Amino acid sequence: MGLAAVIRSAVEAVRLTTEGPDGIQVDVSHEAWVGKDGRAGPLYATAVTRPALAQFRRPQDLRNEGQQIAARCILSFLEPIPATGAIGRREPVDPRDRFTLPNGMTGPVVDVQSMIAPDSEAPLLTVVYLG
């Protein structure tokens, strides 16, 4: 069994262990940025609910394109997020996407990291940092 298969199995085990009514995953609303409206404002796809592990924290400085930013919440998505196919966006999560937690918290996407499987080039795990 290759390393990608081991990691894939580990992510699946975490997903299965943390889901369900007694689990620690939360339902997060994800609105994917898909372009601009007629007034050059952002246009979003219909919100989709995605399960994620949510880690709240005191703001921690991160660096993004030469700027210091603060991450207040880290969302770990243990299932693949499908691409929207919209022109000009980063897939599977664009920095212009909107995420809303069950408690109403939202914030700008300040960083996105994915663990990519070398055999399929598909994300095994996607982590979104909210400011």
Order of helices and strands: HEEEEEEEE
The largest sheet, given as strand count, sense and whether it forms a barrel, is: 6 strands, antiparallel
The dominant shape is globular
**Regions with pLDDT < 50 over 5+ consecutive residues?**
none
Strand fraction band?
over 45%
Strand order of the largest sheet: 6-1-4-5-8-7
The first-level CATH class is given as: Mainly Beta
Mean pLDDT: 86
* CATH-scheme architecture: Beta Barrel
Radius of gyration: 15 Å
* Number of helical regions: 1
Give the helix/strand class.
Answer: mainly beta
CATH topological fold name: Thrombin, subunit H
How many DSSP-defined strands?
Answer: 8
Oligomer: single chain
How many domain regions? 1
Distance between the termini: 38 Å
* Helix content class: 10-25%
